[in-house]
Write a structure and sequence with these properties.
Blueprint (H helix, E strand, L loop, with lengths): L6 H24 L3 H28 L1
Helix pairs in contact: 1-2
């Protein structure tokens, strides 16, 4: 998924994913209604999956 990134690029993508998660969480707190909450939850889950994959790749690289 993210192979080919050097360490600096990988760290930058991790920082972006973390910031995206923070922003999505703040937005979710402001949403009202089941449809909005479900969409926010889906976006947060997708961003968390990306962050987990990036962190796993960085860990494997040592």
């Amino acid at each position: 998924m993210t192979s080919g990134l050097d360490k600096d690029d990988l760290d930058a993508r991790i920082a972006i994913a973390r910031d995206n998660l923070r922003q999505l969480t703040e937005q979710a707190a402001a949403y009202s209604g089941a449809a909005d909450e479900e969409l926010a939850a889906d976006r947060i889950a997708a961003q968390q999956a990306l962050l987990d994959a990036l962190l796993k790749e960085r860990e494997q690289r040592g």
